[in-house]
UniProtKB/TrEMBL annotation:
EC number(s) recorded for this UniProt protein: 1.17.4.1
Family: Belongs to the ribonucleoside diphosphate reductase large chain family.
Domain ATP-cone: residue ranges: 142-233
Basic and acidic residues bias: start-end ranges: 335-345
Highest taxon of source: Eukaryota
Keywords: Allosteric enzyme, ATP-binding, Deoxyribonucleotide synthesis, Nucleotide-binding, Oxidoreductase, Signal
Catalysed conversion reaction: a 2'-deoxyribonucleoside 5'-diphosphate + [thioredoxin]-disulfide + H2O = a ribonucleoside 5'-diphosphate + [thioredoxin]-dithiol
Database matches in InterPro entries: ATP-cone_dom, NrdE_NrdA_C, RNR_lg_C, RNR_lsu_N, RNR_R1-su_N, Rrm1
UniProt-listed Pfam families: ATP-cone (PF03477), Ribonuc_red_lgC (PF02867), Ribonuc_red_lgN (PF00317)
A GO molecular-function descriptor: ribonucleoside-diphosphate reductase activity, thioredoxin disulfide as acceptor
Job of this protein: Provides the precursors necessary for DNA synthesis. Catalyzes the biosynthesis of deoxyribonucleotides from the corresponding ribonucleotides.
Protein name (Swiss-Prot/TrEMBL): Ribonucleoside-diphosphate reductase
One BP term from GO: deoxyribonucleotide biosynthetic process
Length: 1008
């Protein structure tokens, strides 16, 4: 409703300030600051105080005295409005004007099935009735500023009604909506906007998520309903607005051809939407947005949903999923679709490359739409997600969809160094994460023939790259640029590089924006084990070491040693100690094992692989002409836990099983999607397009493995969990190979298939040393756990195991005959952001804690393990005492006496699981991972001896990635909660969580 101030009584300018003077600073029942103001971020508190002070300055002192003394009626009369005696329907009387356009809009929205609470005045007059059973106590009159700029008197009861409407599907036994509404009202300040009320309400609800997870669900619903209220009602309307880029006012006309694609969404998608918009709109399921977590939606809101400007988001989550699906399957693409333009040669890719006929968009539009709808349906239900760059850019005017780029130095020269720097800058601008091999750059002190001087070595050069990574962010400010520098430990500058991320030391000897990894040959590990000497060499003097591996590397390296061509020699353990020291202080360098990475690669026929990517899961061949690229997606494993009688035999009523058949189907769909991404992608540089078209690698990963184990009632390191871990990755690898083989039968193999291990029938598990005719495992179907007996879903029942297996020999023969479309297929990545979007734990990792605060670019969020809360609630033991002790114990349940032992075992955190078990599980699934995996290892209090034992165990287990980040705990517990002992009493007050999980980098590039 619009307020119409009476100009004869008071100038309109004073009306806004007038209301400011009526506000008392929010306080709790005892006059102290309300709980809300103690917990959420300080910037809101500061903003409210600032608005309050500014408002007081805008009202004359005599008027402040009159208003404060006169009470509610004085304010109403001064504003030219008579007080209403019917406060339940409106706090504004005298027949105020109603915006009929808004009423019609929301009536139409209700008819279309939208949430009837999504109106701009934050109320639902059509559904008040008995839902507002508990009225809020009256407070001082304040105004709320609506989206159209008009003011409306604030009604506290509307807050409560809105919460009640949104929480109809939640467990109200554990929610105090009246108390929550009161806390929200305590945070209201003068002239607050309706969008600010949404933010206030959601943050207040989220701050209570440690009480019960449904508070976080309610917070998500508040945010999402606000998003729905402020965005177009249909997908097609949103895409047209984003294509025009004009806010939908049509000033530039409806003909996108006249705009030249000047908006955000591509002309291809806009044209498709204009022709078939009704059909596409009918597929959108907006109600699925309400299933998102608060943290997941806030992550989408911050970086993923398209907007016209900083303050105007146009997309809903469901619109984003559909845009991505259409961008993959319905985009028209051309052979020269890269920022670098066409190749200078007629056929740069090779005889087996995709023909121009195949590259052109000749596929049937109906078939493309069917594939897009299938992709949309699975993504919108949370079964999988494409990588962050794909979510950012699919369907837009700049569809750079690739995640990972692996770069080699063009040359050991000024031209080569700066040409490579430009490559990295252009890739970073397009939201790509970079792995850079610097093995060929000469060491410090080496003679330079051209200038008759000596080289300054790697450090000054890396500082230039460090500055570039900081300056050129990814995707226009979505996150800082990120470069990982790879070096072999024989390089004479290795000690200097190990110090570059350390916090102490000379600034000119530091480059802290970069990340560092060592590409470690087996010879070095043997020398450390034997306590032998290690020779440090300059690549300019000892050439060819980076281009060979295995026995060939050993012969060349030892030959240089015997000739005395090294710069200096040190004990191998001295260098090893420096590596461990850097890891303890900084969490890096990454350790990847060069010989395992090469010997177990399906690209070993191309040459020696010399580096990995930013997140250590991509292992591909590069050279000075080719920039390796990979496109990623991840599967949400918890979605395949089914709690009813399933495909693979009978189970007890209500028991859960893992749906391998469904996983196999989804993995095949993802493989075909990612293969299509290779063709529709706009490459930032020509070398990347050339490499990707020749070798066509993809990377399928996972998220929510820990969630799947919990839903099945399997402790993370149990025998059954280890078997399922291996079984899952066998299913994914088999499905990906099968799909790639099927595509090859119609479109041909990738160009460099001949000579690859797969062309000879050697699959990944064969390269790990298994006999050719041996199937890796007879698939064991798990049906343990998950019985709903009325008390707890974790009642254990005898396990039924039904043996089944994949016909690997049949698939192997088909691959030999028909080939593969893709050289590489499986690469479990970190999923730092996308796992949060899906509301599950990261990748294949155990839970780091059962309760903590997570800091990412979107802000700080309290995370509670919802599985634990539900199980404790079912047992009737979830209360404030348990919550406080959980917080005081750093998220561990081990010392909480009332929790049963089986739950203590089930909810062990990663700090309570042996790293030997984590490494064993990495090795087990590694037999079905043809690239590598982003393997973090955890040690609360690391020592050199414990780290050495851990690293050597990983190396001897055959891992390609020995470690991504080393996660440690600081001197005080990693979860530092200011919970006093007295707070374990039921009567005591609030808890302030101070823990921030270690999070060296929120990798959006590899997050899939």
């Amino acid at each position: 409703m619009k307020v119409q101030p009476h100009s004869a009584i008071m100038p309109p300018l004073l009306v806004k300030s007038l209301v400011v003077a009526t506000l008392s600073w929010p306080s709790g029942a005892n006059g102290s600051m309300s709980p809300y103001h103690r917990r959420p971020t300080d910037h809101l508190r500061h903003h409210r105080r600032q608005r309050w002070q500014e408002g007081r300055r805008g009202v004359p002192s005599f008027l402040r005295r009159v208003i404060v003394g006169g009470g509610e009626d004085t304010v109403a009369v001064a504003a030219g409005i008579r007080s209403s005696t019917n406060a339940s329907s409106s706090m504004i009387s005298d027949e105020p004007r109603i915006d009929n356009e808004h009423v019609a809009h929301y009536q139409a929205a209700d008819a279309n099935g939208h949430d009837d609470t999504n109106n701009d005045d934050y109320s639902d007059s059509a559904k008040m009735g008995d839902e507002a059973s508990t009225a809020m106590p009256p407070t001082t009159i304040q105004y709320v500023i609506k989206k159209d700029g008009t003011a409306e008197l604030f009604d506290e009861d509307k807050i409560l009604r809105r919460l009640q409407n949104l929480s109809s599907d939640l467990d109200l036994r554990f929610l105090s909506l009246t108390d929550l509404a009161r806390s929200i009202c305590d945070g209201i300040y003068p002239n607050i906007t309706t969008s600010e009320i949404d933010t206030l309400a959601s943050e207040t609800a989220a701050s209570r998520s440690t009480t019960h997870p449904d508070y976080a669900r309610l917070a998500a619903m508040i945010c999402i309903s606000a998003n729905h209220r402020s965005t177009p009602n249909t997908f097609s309307e949103a895409m047209i607005i984003l294509n025009r880029g004009d806010g939908g006012d049509g000033e530039n006309g409806d003909d996108v051809a006249t705009r030249g694609g000047g908006g955000f969404v591509s002309d291809d998608i806009a044209d498709l939407v204009r022709r078939r918009g009704r059909e596409i709109d009918e597929r959108i399921r907006s109600e699925r947005d309400m299933e998102m977590s608060y943290f997941g939606f806030k992550t989408l809101e911050r970086s993923y949903l398209l907007r016209l400007n900083e303050n105007t988001i146009v997309e809903r989550p469901q619109y984003m999923w559909m845009r991505v699906a259409l961008g993959i399957h319905c985009r028209k693409y051309r052979r020269d679709d890269s920022e670098g333009g066409r190749d200078d040669v007629e056929n740069p890719i090779g005889d087996n490359s995709v023909s121009s006929k195949q590259i052109s968009h000749e596929e049937d539009e109906d078939a493309n739409l069917r594939a897009a709808f299938e992709t949309y349906d699975l993504m919108s239900r949370g079964y999988f997600t494409h990588a962050s760059p794909t979510l950012f850019h699919a369907g837009t005017t700049h569809p750079q969809l690739c995640s990972c780029f692996l770069v080699q130095m063009s040359d050991d020269s000024i031209n080569g160094i700066y040409d490579t720097l430009k490559r990295c800058a252009v890739i970073s601008k397009s939201a790509g994460g970079i792995g850079l091999c610097v093995n060929k750059i000469r060491a410090r002190g080496t003679f330079i023939k051209g200038t008759r001087g000596v080289s300054n070595g790697l450090v000054p050069m890396l500082r230039v790259y460090d500055s570039t990574s900081h300056y050129v962010d990814q995707g226009g400010g979505k996150r800082p640029g990120a470069f990982a520098i790879y070096l072999e430990p024989w390089h004479a500058d290795v000690f200097d590089v190990l110090n570059l991320r350390k916090n102490h030391g000379k600034e000119e000897q530091r480059a802290r924006n970069l990340f560092y990894g060592l590409w470690v040959p087996d010879l070095f590990m043997r020398r450390v084990e034997e306590d032998g000497m290690w020779s440090l060499m300059c690549p300019h003097v000892c050439q060819g070491l980076a281009e060979c591996h295995g026995e060939e590397f050993d012969r060349l390296y030892e030959g240089y040693e015997s000739e005395g061509r090294y710069v200096r020699q040190v004990r191998a353990r001295t260098l090893w100690a420096a590596i461990l020291d850097a890891q303890i202080e900084t969490g890096t360098p990454y350790l990847l094992y060069k010989d395992a990475a090469n010997e177990k690669s399906n690209q070993k026929n191309l040459g020696t692989i010399q580096c990995s990517n930013l997140c250590t899961e991509i292992i591909q061949y590069t050279d000075k002409e080719e920039v390796a690229v990979c496109n990623l997606a991840s599967i949400c494993l918890s979605k395949f836990v089914v709690s009813e009688k399933g495909r693979y035999g009978s189970t007890a009523p209500g028991m859960a099983y893992f749906d391998h058949e469904g996983l196999h189907k989804v993995a095949k769909i993802i493989t075909k999607n990612l293969d299509k991404v290779i063709d529709v992608n706009q490459y930032p540089i020509e070398g990347a397009r050339k490499s990707n078209m020749r070798h066509r690698p993809i990377g399928i990963g996972v998220s929510g493995l820990a969630d799947a184990f919990l839903r099945l009632g399997l402790p993370f390191a149990s025998r059954e969990a280890k078997e399922l871990n291996e079984a899952i990755f066998e299913t994914i690898y088999h499905a990906a190979l099968e799909a790639s083989n099927e595509i090859a039968q119609t479109k041909g193999s990738y160009a460099t298939f001949d000579g690859s291990p797969a062309s000879e029938g050697k699959l990944q598990f064969n390269l790990w040393g298994m006999n050719d005719g041996e199937t890796p495992s007879r698939r064991r179907q798990h049906s343990k756990g998950g019985c709903l007996d009325g008390n707890t879903k974790l009642q254990q029942y005898p396990k039924e195991v039904e043996e089944f297996g994949y016909d690997w020999d049949k698939l192997r023969q088909s691959i030999i005959t028909s080939g593969l479309r893709n050289s590489l297929l499986v690469a479990p990545m970190p999923t730092a952001s996308t796992s949060q979007i899906l509301g599950v734990n990261e990748c294949f990792e155990p839970f780091a804690s059962n309760l903590y605060v997570r800091r990412v670019k979107a802000g700080e969020f309290i995370i509670v393990n919802p599985h634990l809360i539900q199980d404790l609630t079912d047992l009737g033991i979830w209360n404030k005492n348990v919550r406080n002790q959980l917080m005081r114990d750093g998220g561990s349940v081990a010392k909480i006496d009332c929790i049963p032992d089986r739950l203590k075992d089930l909810y062990k955190t990663v700090w309570e699981i042996k790293m030997k078990d984590i490494i064993d599980m990495a090795s087990d699934r590694g037999r079905f991972i043809d690239q590598s995996q982003s393997l973090n290892l955890f040690m609360a209090v690391p020592t050199a001896s414990k780290l050495t034992a851990m690293h050597f165990y990983a190396w001897k287990k055959g891992l390609k990635t020995g470690i991504y980040y080393l996660r440690t705990r600081p001197a005080v517990n990693a979860i530092q909660y200011t919970v006093s002992k007295s707070m374990t009493d039921e009567s005591n007050g609030d808890i302030q969580a101070q823990n921030i999980l270690p999070n060296d980098i929120e990798c959006l590039s590899c997050s899939a």
